[in-house]
Amino acid sequence: MTATWGLIIDVARCHDCNNCFLACKDEFVGNAWPPYSTAQPDHGHRWMNILRRERGGYPLVEVAYLPKPCQHCKNPLCLKAARNGAVTIREDGIVLIDPDKATGQKQLVEACPYGAIFWNEASQTPQKCSLCCHLLDEGWQEPRCVQACPTGALRAFKLESDEWEQRIKAERLAAYLSKHECEPRVLYKNLKRFSHGFIAGTVALAKTDECAENARVLLTDGQGQPFAETHTDNYGDFKLHGLEEMASKLFVEIKVDGLPPKLVTVEFETSLNLGTIII
Known about the structure:
Strand content: 25-35%
Oligomer: single chain
Shape: elongated
Radius of gyration: 23 Å
Largest sheet: 4 strands, antiparallel
Helix content: 10-25%
Structural class: alpha+beta
């Protein structure tokens, strides 16, 4: 059994500082690392790209960031689209584009469902993240992007398959855009913060005009089936996280000790702020 490299990216820890992006630029712009890669151009390439998603409404707005390098898939579509063995999977799981064999093969850019392959017009070659395998082969324990991350959002591991399975279960890891069935080796923690929505609001007491602290907030389908539950903070604010956004009628039930429950009907198509709810 052979150990393979992979990344674990925690969406909750990414703050869009772009240290990973800059470290990648520092390592590859103007630097060729044959036979792994040719030099990355000054502009246009984001081998470590950071996607951004804003949700909700003022003042309860949430922004989530998702670092997106090459996913180093077990079943890469770029490999299927390549000619002459231009794309290979190393024994340690790293997917590489041969800079010589791939010359002129622009179809590799379109083949990647993650948009992680870029075209170098000057060298007429497709390029992407190599996981800094030129450094890993010299004994480095992590690629430059991981080394530069100040929050621990990026982590690199070289593990046996059973160890990967254990970590996937323990940390509840998931693949981004899993519908493509490419079996990525880049896995995400807290992915729902990016891919799912939320319902937010503020609860206030009618009699005192004060915030309703620790009120129970329950999201249901109206038939008693709960989807999410939380409590208001000391400002009366709440957020129901991790909701799959869809056109659906849902019900927010708010309970405060000593008061009859309040039921709010919502049409949940995307993340929303219900504003102030008086109870």
